[in-house]
Amino acid sequence: MPIAHAHEPADAVVGVYLTFPDASTAERIAGELVAERLVACVNLLPPATSVYRWEGQVVREPEIVAWAKTTRDRLAALTAAVEARHPYAVPCVVTYPASGGSIAYLEWVRDEVGPPR
Questions:
Q1: How many CA atoms lie within 13 A of 95 on its CB side?
Q2: What is the pLDDT of residue 116?
């Protein structure tokens, strides 16, 4: 089911923040998401230290941060794909709207994840 907001069209470009436990997992899942046209691009950033509470304990672990670009109407399928493949019980999938930017780039994202034109 598409995730929609009344003030944004279904093809609105969004950034999706993801985290992974290691580079190989991040690269594998990123490649699958691009191949399946769920995202146009995924940037994998160097390891970061994440500090969070899990099962009552404060945990500090290295993670790979990923920034994916897609459209609002692909979010439900993208989220389901990440949850199905991710080794975490609760993977981080957080969306941020693209409130502007290069028109050519935003169109490229729409073209990559949308139906063939």
A1: 20
A2: 64
